[in-house]
Design a protein that fits this description.
Strand content: 5-15%
Shape: globular
Distance between the termini: 68 Å
Number of helices: 10
Number of strands: 6
Largest sheet: 6 strands, parallel
Structural class: alpha/beta
Order of helices and strands: EHHEHHEHEHEHEHHH
Strand order of the largest sheet: 3-2-1-4-5-6
Helix content: 40-55%
Radius of gyration: 18 Å
């Protein structure tokens, strides 16, 4: 078994690989709410953009079966080249591997549809090739709860690190004093973290409160 990864993710060492976030692949997902997966992967993509983390986008059979990449992802990375594959295993497509290698980064964050194929296969192969692989569980989905769970278990046993999209974003940020990204992270959280996002709006709108910012002065009493 690979030695467990002990260091936290930092943006300067990370590369994001998003695999097969396409309509036909989403139709088959039964392991979690499908609209939530869309929300989560877009939040993850926006976080990568905020931290300038290189992102590789890839699809499978986009024109003949699976359909185009989610438009919301295309909107986050409008100028990105999308690699369309025939292989189920992204790590067997040299263009994708080369795109990851060119970044020179070894902390690989992956999300994919489906977990048991398009996430599991490249995660295991990238692990073999010396990458610290982090599988974003809630931005991925399988054809059943069992398929998703067994794939995650298989990867974890091999040494892949399971994470969630918010965990990745906050791990990249870690300190609200990092003002270059703090405002954008707060904006992503407001939009993509559900009830917590509404809590952020509530605190801001009611008394101007935001994480990492000084508490507003109390009004003077007369």
């Amino acid at each position: 078994m690979k030695t467990p990864v002990r260091s936290l993710l930092v943006p300067q060492e990370s590369v994001l690989l998003l695999i097969d976030h396409q309509p036909q692949m989403l139709f088959g997902v039964q392991s979690m709410d499908r609209q939530l997966i869309v929300n989560n992967v877009i939040g993850l993509a926006k976080a990568a953009r905020a931290f300038k983390v290189p992102t590789v986008l890839t699809t499978v059979a986009a024109r003949t079966f699976s359909g185009p990449i989610f438009q919301e992802l295309r909107d986050v990375f409008p100028d990105a080249d999308i690699v369309d594959r025939t292989t189920m295993n992204t790590w067997e497509d040299k263009r994708c591997v080369t795109a990851v290698q060119k970044t020179g980064r070894k902390k690989l964050v992956i999300a994919a549809l489906w977990t048991e194929v398009c996430l599991c296969f490249p995660a295991l192969d990238a692990l073999r090739d010396g990458y610290d692989v982090h599988a974003v569980e809630d931005a991925s989905g399988g054809v059943s709860e069992a398929a998703h769970r067994m794939a995650m278990l298989r990867m974890v046993q091999a040494g892949v690190v399971p994470v969630t999209w918010q965990q990745v974003m906050y791990e990249w940020q870690r300190d609200w004093a990092r003002t270059d990204t703090a405002d954008e992270v707060r904006a992503i959280a407001r939009e993509h973290t559900g009830a917590f996002g509404y809590g952020i709006r509530y605190a801001r709108d009611m008394w101007g409160g935001e994480e990492g910012k000084p508490r507003p002065a109390a009004p003077m009493r007369h």
